[in-house]
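Action item from last week, closing it out:
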Amino acid sequence: MEYWNVIPIFQCSSFNVASLRDASSYYPPRARWYTRTFLVPGARVRRWAHLDGLRISDRISPGDLLLSITMPGFAFFALGRREIGWLVLGVYGLAGLVFIVALGYLGGSIAFGLMISAHSTSLVFLEGLWLGGSRFRVKMLAAVCTLRAVFAGYSQVVAFVQRHWLMPLRIGEQVVIIRNGINASSIKRGDLVAYEISEDRAAAAQIGAVHLRSGFGLDPVLALPGDRIRFAREGLFVNDHREVVSAYMPRGGELVVPEHVWFIWPSLVANMHGGVSESDISAAMRQIALVPEDQIVGKAFKRWFFLTQSR
């Protein structure tokens, strides 16, 4: 009778099925689902662009990669540099706070640049996973492209916010924060409203030698649609209630504010050159004072953090 010596597998503490299988020629490593889709074309592109040092790293998970791209400073946390991550995150948060509080001022612009720099620094550090063996000029080019891309992205976000939510409007040396997207029917007499003087309206209001520039204005609403306005030597009357007289207002005449139009007397600076009559200036400004609904930008916040906003 022939006997065989059998050694139970559970008694072999050093036995590793996975390692034997990986080392065996019968179990070659399987190609992942992304090999043909990303790795093979990516390798061809790298060879064509002489970026052979570019590698896809396994040191970061797809979720951490996404957070590292979208969240400033997270790349340092994901790759074990927590001290630098807290520093970048702190600089970004403080700069973001200053940017919002000092919106429209020089300090806000500097803070905006620091936010872009902090986010770009995090992304450049993340790019080091793949560009570690690349040439210096390749790394510099990647850093410059990253900075430009972050700046373009942040600029688009700021532009969207200014179109739909709020915008800083500079009037002389003062910056007033305007709330956009308001319902025009909510505007009341006395509200400080920002409005646009389009090129078409400015051209239509040219009377005689008076030439008006397009731009933005910020002034209180004097009359609503349907209100009756009367100009007189003794003052301005809205529905027979006397109002404060502004510069260059006519000394006579009446009008009824049309529908979807608000009466806002502009506080423009007049540059007098040659023989320009005051009556022509009053007539031109009277046309500009009738602001249609599509030219209204928004209402000013009464307070912006610790500052009271006024005109």
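Closing note: The first strand starts at residue 166 and ends at 171.
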